[in-house]
Amino acid sequence: MRQRKREQRERRAYREQQGHQEYQEHQGHPEQPQHRKQQQQQREGKRPEERAQSEDPLTEALTGVLEDARARGGAFHRALFAPPWAVRVQDGAPLSLAALVRGSGWVLPGPEPEPVRMEPGDVAVLRGPLPYVLADAPDTEPDLVVQPGDCCTTPDGVDMCEQLELGVRTWGRSPDAPTLVLTGNYQLRGDLGSRLPATLPPVLVLRAAEWDADLLAVVADQVVKDAPGQQLVLDRLLDLLLISVLRAWFARPEADAPAWYRAQADPVVGTALRLLHEQPAHGWTVASLAAGAGVSRAGLARRFTGLVGEPPMTYLARRRIDMAARLLREPDATLGTVARKVGYADGFALSAAFKRLRGVSPAEHRAAAGAG
């Protein structure tokens, strides 16, 4: 009985706090009403479809996992082909995307999965680093090979880059070829990003009617532009393509969506995850998190662990360290600043937690990231 009353008091305190102030880091900072007002203004300034997307819990789930998987200078190209054609892609990328804009073709992901036919608007996501083949027919032998570093050669290693260049990020043997394919790849970094491929099959293909295929026209238009900052534009378009494809894939009734994705749709666990994601530096306890989700501590712990696969505080600790690892790659970030941003009192506390969870110190992690 005393425990129940205590939990009720904590829930009331949480609601009062939410009504009057922004959640603060556990060191105790003053209220920031202006910051809350700015957030509200930014939200109200968005178009309805933008607000809907930003509030979609499933999009939030993907965004969290993609924080480390975001495209950074990823290769994005238009390829033009005329039958017979086949190209073997062995660039070593951990995650690749291929979309058919016009014409027809096949994707051959390897010896085990069967070849899959592709029509205009279809998109394939392929889990690397194993090579795959794009071709006009399953039995066409590749006469071109895409190597690491975006180099295109013949099967015996003759460089073909100059001969195949057709313009900005465009290659092929003829600008009038009937088949147009868009390709892009991701270079995944960190624990968050590395979890993504493990949740995917070797190849997934969505038909044009199953996802927002209109995005392909935008990408095809942007790929050939060579304006300042264009690489950043293409990186974000690649992010958008991948999120759109994965949302559609995981939403299929027969799809075996990963636990981190399903958890976001749960009314209790999804709420708890959003609180942790939005305010990672707050001094969360199981009790305060349960109050925010409107359930008991035991109920939250049981439900959270069942869906996410680990207890709430374990998840929060790992997420804080994932965030710290990402922030530490910034050249001007100090250990103390990063510590406060992710919920630790000082650099010493962050260093101890970082070493415990990752096996290396923040300095060692930063040095390795710089070398990579």
Automatic annotation (TrEMBL):
Superkingdom of origin organism: Bacteria
Pfam name, any one: Cupin_6
Region ranges (Disordered): 1-59
InterPro entries, alphabetized: AraC_lig, AraC_XylS_family_regulators, Homeodomain-like_sf, HTH_AraC, HTH_AraC-typ_CS
Gene3D superfamilies, per database record: Homeodomain-like (1.10.10.60)
Domain HTH araC/xylS-type residues, every copy: 270-368
PROSITE patterns associated with the record: HTH_ARAC_FAMILY_1, HTH_ARAC_FAMILY_2
Xref: SMART domains: HTH_ARAC
Any one Gene Ontology molecular-function term assigned to this protein's record: sequence-specific DNA binding
Record's keyword terms, sorted: DNA-binding, Transcription, Transcription regulation
Xref: SUPFAM superfamilies: Homeodomain-like
Amino acid composition bias (Basic and acidic residues), ranges on this chain: 7-34, 43-54
Protein name: AraC family transcriptional regulator
Lineage summary: Bacteria, Bacillati, Actinomycetota, Actinomycetes, Kitasatosporales
